[in-house]
């Protein structure tokens, strides 16, 4: 049964939303297309963004609660992994804090040997050199090996296909503690759907929007959690991840910021809208893991010292939203992932 607060929030949606039958029809029609083809029409995706902004996130929560009722959770008997033992009171307390604040920080959670292997892979694999704000939009795509003494741009990205075949990444995708926490937060079986790894560098001393160094909220899906893994030590000079505590909650981001749509937001605007205590920077040692609902405002800070390498996984409650390029697991080399693929292959359908 719906809570009275949820019913009240729906009934009190802005009149402009209630009158926007075209956007609502685009979303409904697009969801039917997605259900049939697995692809989301652009018009439906943009309608989802608009509805998030005009309802200050309440629409997403309402639709997510319906999705949770239709897809049961997978059984995770022993939620023990890189986040520790999440069974019992500790797991419940962490989940409560995650729902309230929008993030959890696990310092030095990933073993150093795992960090070493991922770093080795990054240094020996070509990366895509991301276009910067100062470059034309039609700039040719570049690939290069990352060299700290020969920087070419602010950000370097690695292919999801390469990451999917990496044993350490496969282990994280099937980690029982991660799956348990994500599933309890979403209220349904999670879907692994966005995987990336990148360097942030001190190539330039100003924020670059293409490198996600200005505040923004994500909205690729209806509801999700991101898992950020620091693969280098990150201090104030290394571009620490920044997050506005509590800004993931429906109604938390002020209307004057949302009315601009899916746009970057300056530090000054965020500081005017939120208290200093809410604006956090995560300086943490190598191997630290941040679990975060990035519907909240976040960014990567400017790097002025050594570059930062970060791995990101995402689990969502639905694949409705952005259509990402296909990436497939060509060979399963991790035993835990083999087991999860047998138990709940639906979790990894994006990568099969």
TL;DR?
This protein has 352 residues and is an alpha+beta fold.
Series of secondary-structure elements, N-terminal to C-terminal: HHHHHEEHEHEEEHHHEEEHHEEEEH
- Radius of gyration from the alpha-carbon trace, in angstroms: 20 Å
Q: What is the quaternary state of this protein?
A: single chain
Low-confidence stretches: 6-11
Number of helices: 13
- What does the main sheet amount to? 8 strands, antiparallel
Q: Give the strand content.
A: 15-25%
Average pLDDT reading: 93
Measured distance between first and last alpha carbons: 36 Å
**What share of residues is helical?**
25-40%
Shape: globular
Note down, in words, how this protein is organized.
The protein is α+β, with helices and mostly antiparallel strands. Helices cover 35% and strands 16% of the residues. The strands form 3 sheets. The protein has an 8-stranded antiparallel sheet with strand order 3-11-8-13-7-6-4-5. It has a 3-stranded antiparallel sheet with strand order 10-9-12, with no helix packed on it. Strands 1-2 form a two-stranded antiparallel ribbon. α3 crosses α4. The chain starts with a helix and ends in a 9-residue tail after the last helix. The relative contact order is 0.18. Mean pLDDT is 93; it is low at 6-11.
Write the layout of secondary structure elements.
Layout: H1 4-11, H2 15-18, H3 21-37, H4 42-55, H5 58-70, E1 80-81, E2 84-85, H6 89-101, E3 103-106, H7 112-123, E4 127-129, E5 142-144, E6 155-157, H8 160-164, H9 167-173, H10 176-186, E7 191-200, E8 224-230, E9 241-244, H11 255-258, H12 267-273, E10 279-282, E11 289-292, E12 298-300, E13 308-316, H13 335-343
Antiparallel strand pairs: 1-2, 3-11, 4-5, 4-6, 6-7, 7-13, 8-11, 8-13, 9-10, 9-12
Helix pairs in contact: 3-4
């Amino acid at each position: 049964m719906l809570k009275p607060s949820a019913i009240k929030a729906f009934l009190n949606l802005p009149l402009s939303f209630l009158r926007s039958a075209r956007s609502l029809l685009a979303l409904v029609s697009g969801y039917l297309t997605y259900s049939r083809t697995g692809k989301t029409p652009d018009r439906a995706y943009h309608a989802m963004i608009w509805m998030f902004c005009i309802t200050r996130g309440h629409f997403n929560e309402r639709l997510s609660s319906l999705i949770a009722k239709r897809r049961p959770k997978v059984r995770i008997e022993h939620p023990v992994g890189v986040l520790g033992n999440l069974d019992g009171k500790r797991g419940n307390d962490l989940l409560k804090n995650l729902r309230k604040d929008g993030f959890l920080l696990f310092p030095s959670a990933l073993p150093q040997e795992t960090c070493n292997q991922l770093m080795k892979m990054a240094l020996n694999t070509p990366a895509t050199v991301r276009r910067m704000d100062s470059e034309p939009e039609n700039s040719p795509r570049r690939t290069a090996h990352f060299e700290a003494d020969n920087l070419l741009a602010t950000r370097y990205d690695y292919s999801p296909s390469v990451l999917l075949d990496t044993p350490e990444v496969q282990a994280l995708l099937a980690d029982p503690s991660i799956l348990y926490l994500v599933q309890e937060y979403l209220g349904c079986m999670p879907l692994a759907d966005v995987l990336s790894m990148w360097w942030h560098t001190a190539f330039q001393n100003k924020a670059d929007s293409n490198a996600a160094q200005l505040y923004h909220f994500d909205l690729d899906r209806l509801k999700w959690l991101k898992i950020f893994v620091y693969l280098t030590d990150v201090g104030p000079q290394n571009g620490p991840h920044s997050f506005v505590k509590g800004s993931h909650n429906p109604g938390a981001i002020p209307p004057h910021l949302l009315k601009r749509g899916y746009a970057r937001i300056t530090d000054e605007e965020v500081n005017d809208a939120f208290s200093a205590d809410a604006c956090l920077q995560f300086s943490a040692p190598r191997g630290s893991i941040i679990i975060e609902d990035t519907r909240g405002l976040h960014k990567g800070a400017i790097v002025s010292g050594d570059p930062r390498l970060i791995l990101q996984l995402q689990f969502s409650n639905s694949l409705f939203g952005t259509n990402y390029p296909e990436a497939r697991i060509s060979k399963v080399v991790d035993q835990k992932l083999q087991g999860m693929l047998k138990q709940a292959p639906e979790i990894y359908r994006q990568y099969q």
